[in-house]
Amino acid sequence: MAQVVWITGASSGLGLHTAQALARHGFTVAAGARSFGRGKTAAGCLCLPLDVTSPESIDAFVSQALKAYGPPDILVNCAGMLILGACESYSPEELRQVMETNFFSQAAMISRVLPFMREKGKGRIVNFSSINGLLGIPFEGAYTASKHAIEGYSECLSYEVKRFGIEIMLVEPGDHRSGSSAYRKHAAGMTSDSPYKAAFDAGTARIAQDEQNGSDPDALGEKIVQALKKKRLPRRLRVAKPDQHLAVILHDILPPALFDRIIGPYYS
Ligand SMILES: NC(=O)c1ccc[n+]([C@@H]2O[C@H](COP(=O)([O-])OP(=O)(O)OC[C@H]3O[C@@H](n4cnc5c(N)ncnc54)[C@H](OP(=O)(O)O)[C@@H]3O)[C@@H](O)[C@H]2O)c1
Hints:
By secondary structure, this protein is of the alpha/beta class. Helices cover 48% and strands 16% of the residues. Helix 3 packs parallel to helix 4 (141-161).
């Protein structure tokens, strides 16, 4: 029988490509996103409205997905957003919005599926992190904090739920040419008189350029499917270009001051 997948953030970018890849490979997919309530769809998937920051919306998604396909074998937590800005410029609300969307929502979805998976004695949870879950870059402070949070949380979770036959995989994408600019806001505090403005403009231009030249989002969807077909789920799936793999390795082995001398000029 086809495995049932619940996937969040499936209306755009990597979530959309992953949901459609799963459907193409015969998984039964219940896909959630806010814009599914506004007419958007993902090919081959049951598209349900879902705001991952709203407990009521999560309740409605869970009951509709259960009614349609029964409990999930797999959860893919992909919904995410970015607010670019200097750390000093973020309002508390902006920081909370990023943490709510990228971290608390994943924890909330996980808590909803674990009872079903524990009862079945098996299950798989795929949490979208990022290369930014492993290292920081300028002007992505809120996003990087949220991705570091899901890295740590997933590692702890995986130790805890192994005994119930449940496996966790972190997906750590590098830049992919998929993301919609609608989800890359600028912090309201990044005004034209900000002392960070010139550095911010240079850094965000580099970030946008890296995304435009990024990897193929369809290939990432396929890699997730292939990982889910394996007998044992990998703990981490890092999908990045060689220079981004190298950046993670250098970040871990070089003295911080030396690493800063490489990364700093790249974003200036
Ligand atoms: N693109 C990249 O280069 C890249 C690199 C590393 C990691 N990632 C990670 O991959 C994931 C997808 O990013 P992306 O850039 O490919 O996609 P994206 O185009 O930025 O789309 C974001 C998705 O998240 C959904 N979303 C945002 N807020 C939501 C909310 N409150 N409730 C439900 N859904 C919500 C959006 O759907 P609605 O607006 O319809 O709700 C949309 O489907 C994210 O977790 C991101 O951090 C992406």
